[in-house]
Task: inverse folding
């Protein structure tokens, strides 16, 4: 039997903490864990990878600021994400 949703959420949080990653603020971890379970406990974004979190995420975040599925990100990614989010919100208020 595989892990529960809460166990997968805990694993994701621990992986992020252990590697000093952030979790993308636009992701709901319980929904993400449900997707992992749906995919047979494999990585939901890259066929052929083992579970989530996958080891490939380490190099992807190191080399590109985020993993393929954008679940794990670094501080540089978050800064840009927040900047772009702020610009979108500002444009939205101007359009009214």
Result:
């Amino acid at each position: 039997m595989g892990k529960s949703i809460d166990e997968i959420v805990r694993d994701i949080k621990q992986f992020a903490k252990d590697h000093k990653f952030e979790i993308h603020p636009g992701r709901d971890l319980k929904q993400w864990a449900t997707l992992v379970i749906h995919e047979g406990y494999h990585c939901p974004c890259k066929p052929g990878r083992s579970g989530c979190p996958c080891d490939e995420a380490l190099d992807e975040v190191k080399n590109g600021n985020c993993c393929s599925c954008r679940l794990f990100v670094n501080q540089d990614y978050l800064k840009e994400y927040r900047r772009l989010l702020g610009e979108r919100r500002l444009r939205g208020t101007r359009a009214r």
Summary: The CA atoms of residues 43 and 51 lie 5 Å apart. The beta strands are 22-23, 72-73.
